[in-house]
Specification:
mainly alpha, 0% strand
Length: 185
């Protein structure tokens, strides 16, 4: 079941990243076309961006003029308005492989105590501990990348993971009871 979930993650991640990349490429294409048609308007927008970033009006005007002369207008507009850079487009295949790899790790590691043959009660405790450690690591990495409070992010991720794990356990228990009731009838 874990491998089926991993495969689903890989496929979903691939198509999501590919679609996102195509959308970004289309936005870049439209920006290039409009920059070709109305470069002065975009030059004024760049000047406005620089003023909004507290640049001196003369420096802002110089930056906008330089961007126009060096054919950098579309790149600046793409980055300022849409957060799109040509280098951060992402490779759908690599993204899918990374998602699949980490999904596999996240699926297999918590199952190790069960696969090792430990008693179920002990395995559950160790599995939850492994899950908490994995969520802490992922939360820390995500917080650093997103430049948010690490402690809050880790707690948020651990709480969400434990709540979802508890709900999954309850759903499995309910299903087991219902199947037991059906077999009795």
């Amino acid at each position: 079941m874990g491998f089926a979930a991993t495969l689903s993650t890989v496929v979903g991640s691939y198509f999501f990243t590919r679609t996102e990349k195509r959308l970004k490429e289309d936005i870049l294409k439209r920006i290039r076309l409009t920059c070709d048609c109305a470069p002065e308007a975009y030059q004024q927008r760049i000047e406005k961006y620089m003023k909004n970033k507290n640049y001196d009006p003369e420096i802002a005007k110089t930056i906008a003029l330089e961007a126009f002369e060096k054919n950098m207008i579309e790149r600046i507009i793409a980055e300022e308005e849409y957060g799109i850079g040509e280098k951060n487009m992402g490779d759908p295949f690599v993204n899918a492989l990374q998602s699949g790899f980490f999904k596999t790790i996240g699926t297999i590691l918590p199952l190790l105590p069960f696969l090792a043959g430990y008693p179920v009660d002990f395995s559950i405790v160790v599995s939850v501990a492994i899950t908490v450690v994995l969520l802490s690591v992922i939360g820390s990495l995500a917080a650093v990348v997103a430049q948010v409070d690490v402690r809050k992010k880790v707690i948020e991720l651990i709480m969400a993971g434990l709540i979802l794990s508890g709900l999954t356990f309850l759903l499995g228990k309910l299903t087991s009871i219902l199947i037991g009731m059906i077999q009795v009838v």
